[in-house]
Design a protein that fits this description.
heterodimer, A: 3 helices, about 0% strand, elongated, B: mainly alpha, disordered N terminus
């Protein structure tokens, strides 16, 4: 294992696990708000451009997920030679690093598809 | 990181196979095992799923002037509350089964699990019977109310069924003796049941709110 302290690895592990999910949640919630602001009668005075904001959210989301994936890969590599069945905290870090590496790829796909669709589709439609 | 020579190594989850080894391994552990963390993640995912269902229910309700729609009976109150009470009574034996297993008391662990399994299976049998009867009264595709009603109830029953399978699997495994792996499973499954019971309370509360 590495020269990184257990505490630093633990921080990386939690970041790798949670940042991807947080990025998706943020894109979803803020993106919904942006759409409401553009399409709602009260929001029109803000002059918010949906496509620019959605593109910014998409970029920030992708960046956060890539950093999270890098953190998960780092923890995975720095705990090689151990098993998720071992004593915590090393076992826990190994376990969550494996889970986060897979989950972040899924979050990346969701954020890219969701962001692209938000830009490509017509924003405001009559209900 | 370097290994601490003063620290007694804890065997992997399949390493300890006698009650004395298992008890010693569980006592030496510095934190929850990966099985417990995995269950926490699963519970968080399922809570999100049910949160979405419940959000959908109230969205539909606030868009609909008459709820439940005309021609659909209001949900029953007494029977579901008695049933959820019975299900809630299985949480203590599940947690006690874990504690007994962690203490190496295999016979007690099995006893608690059998007790819980009987009540859980009885609950599920009654609920499935009731679910089928309701489907005969009004179908799932009739309107938005029936759709979200059966979705919520069906998802909850599916989680109860999964819990019963977990309990039965654990009981079968414990028939072959105690290992650290099985103690970890007992802990994770006990917490799964606590979560399912809380979710069931949320689901029943949501469905009964139609009477308000």
């Amino acid at each position: 294992m590495s020269a990184l302290s257990l505490r630093s690895l633990a921080v990386l592990q939690w970041f790798g696990l949670l940042a991807g999910a947080g990025a998706w949640a943020g894109q979803l919630v803020v993106g919904f708000g942006v759409t409401q602001a553009e399409c709602g009668a009260a929001g029109s005075r803000f002059g918010i451009g949906n496509d620019v904001w959605q593109a910014a959210l998409l970029g920030a989301g992708v960046l956060a997920i890539l950093v999270a994936e890098a953190a998960a890969v780092t923890v995975f590599l720095r705990t090689r030679g151990t098993s998720y069945e071992e004593e915590p905290p090393v076992g826990r870090m190994r376990f969550f690093a494996i889970a986060a590496m897979a989950a972040n790829l899924i979050f990346l796909m969701i954020v890219v598809l969701s962001g692209t669709a938000s830009i490509a589709n017509v924003t405001c439609r009559q209900a | 990181m370097s290994a601490d020579p003063a620290r007694v190594p804890v065997p992997r989850t399949t390493g300890a196979e006698s009650p004395a080894e298992v008890v010693a391994a569980v006592r030496r552990r510095a934190g929850p095992p990966a099985a417990w963390w995995g269950m926490v993640v699963l519970i968080a995912s399922e809570a999100t799923l049910f949160g979405a269902f419940i959000g959908t229910y109230y969205y539909l309700r606030f868009e609909t002037p008459v709820w439940p729609p005309l021609g659909i009976p209001e949900p029953k109150v007494v029977v579901p509350l008695i049933l959820i009470g019975c299900l809630a009574l299985t949480a203590p034996p599940m947690l006690l089964a874990y504690r007994a297993a962690a203490a190496g008391r295999l016979r007690a662990a099995r006893g608690y699990l059998v007790l819980a399994l009987v009540v859980q299976a009885g609950y599920f049998a009654f609920e499935v019977h009731d679910f089928r009867d309701q489907l005969h009264t009004y179908g799932i595709t009739r309107n938005a109310y029936s759709s979200i009603y059966y979705t919520l109830l069906g998802a909850d029953h599916a989680h109860v069924l999964l819990g019963i399978l977990f309990t039965a699997w654990l009981l079968a495994k414990l028939a072959g003796g105690l290992t650290t792996y099985r103690v970890n499973a007992a802990q994770a499954i006990a917490w799964y049941w606590v979560a399912v019971i809380l979710l069931t309370f949320a689901v029943i509360g949501t469905l009964l709110s139609a009477r308000v």
